Amino acid sequence: MSALLRLVGRRLLQLPIMIVGITVLVFFVMSFSTVDPAIQALGEGASVEARESYRAANGLDDPLPVRYLDFLGGLVQGDLGTYSARSLSVGDEVARALPITLQLTFMGLAIAVVLALAFGVVAALFRDRWPDKAIRVVSVASLATPSFWLAVLLIQSVTLGAGLLPASGPLPDPAEDLGGYLARMALPALALAVPVIGQLTRVVRTSVVEELDKDYVRTALGAGIPKPVVVGRNVLRNALITPVTVLGLRVGYLIGGAVVIEVIFALPGMGTLILNGVTNNEPNLVQGVTLTVALAFVLVNIVVDMLYVLVNPRIRTV
Hey, which of 56, 121, 293, 316 has its CA 20 to 30 A from 63? Predict the structure, then answer.
């Protein structure tokens, strides 16, 4: 247990360094924007004196390192700045949109994990027979299917479902209409999950096949222990180590893919928000959304690392 705590402590100590690195990268990249914040705030008709006064009041004439430190200080206090001539809060917009992106990401993740685990185990148990061959064909096809193309295809074919799974329209509040919420999120989550299902199915199948070929499995089966018990208690636990590692690498894909899928399905998440920022030349909004998505990616991967530690006891002694 002490070794596990040390490993968790090392991961948490790395977190501030990664966060600072992300803020530096995002801030300095966005500093090359040609959009004048003074014009964005005051309008095209503002006088030169008014623009200069705005820049001085908001520290826009300060050296870049000074502006970064001011930005970092505001970030520590939860202030992502404002955007548009109405001085809307970036933090408020992110707080509204981020939960939708995370919900879509984890719904896609749940679908991918459940289906990939089921398909992978079935394929391994029926190795080289028709279920295995069929699942391998489907997994290769899903792996080669881009999420955005599948999203468009699902929208085109949504009429076949008689409107049961809407591809557009407002997103219901899950507290008030859980069924409507799940129906609205089903197609985006499926489009996001399909490529991950293909990759994860192949990894699960390979891992389970390798475990089934080991001596302890043959010994257990020879001792009369039912095969479902051996697979459920031993094989799956040992075989999940590699899939969890691959899943950690795909979480970032899911977060990034969710941003694109939201735009296609008109969901009011981070993807729609960043599109609005780019379309309306709002660098502060783009910066806040990009930074938040990057931080979410880092935090989720740390959680996956902890899950990997729990699944693989051998790494606890590292």
Answer: 293
